[in-house]
């Protein structure tokens, strides 16, 4: 399943007021971070991840690595912030249009 433009717009609006709860630094993305982000997505469904200035990897590569590792969708990459969405199996809060 891919997100439609309408669903992405809806999720961007929902994510607008959120603060980034994870930061990717010079070590890049690792297995522990993937596990923690996956758990956070299960609880919240929609999160922001901040890519710090000292990160050696490109933010697009970071977003791809996280999305691939967690099974989440990349809603948006704006500046150094990545917005991710993954439908929760137990804590479903967001209903997509």
From TrEMBL:
It comes from the Bacteria. Pfam families: CRS1_YhbY. Keywords: RNA-binding. This is Ribosome assembly RNA-binding protein YhbY. Gene3D superfamilies: YhbY-like (3.30.110.60). The lineage of its organism: Bacteria, Bacillati, Bacillota, Bacilli, Bacillales. Residues 1-97 form the CRM domain. Signal peptide: none annotated. SMART domains: CRS1_YhbY. GO terms for molecular function: RNA binding.
């Amino acid at each position: 399943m891919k997100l439609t433009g309408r669903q992405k717009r809806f999720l961007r609006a929902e994510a607008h007021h959120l603060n980034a709860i994870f930061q990717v630094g010079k070590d890049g993305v690792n297995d522990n971070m993937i596990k923690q982000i996956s758990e956070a997505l299960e609880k919240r469904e929609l999160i922001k991840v901040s890519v710090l200035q000292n990160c050696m990897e490109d933010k697009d590569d970071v977003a791809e690595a996280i999305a691939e590792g967690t099974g989440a969708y990349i809603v948006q990459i704006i500046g150094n912030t990545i917005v991710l969405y993954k439908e929760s199996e137990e804590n479903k809060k967001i209903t997509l249009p």
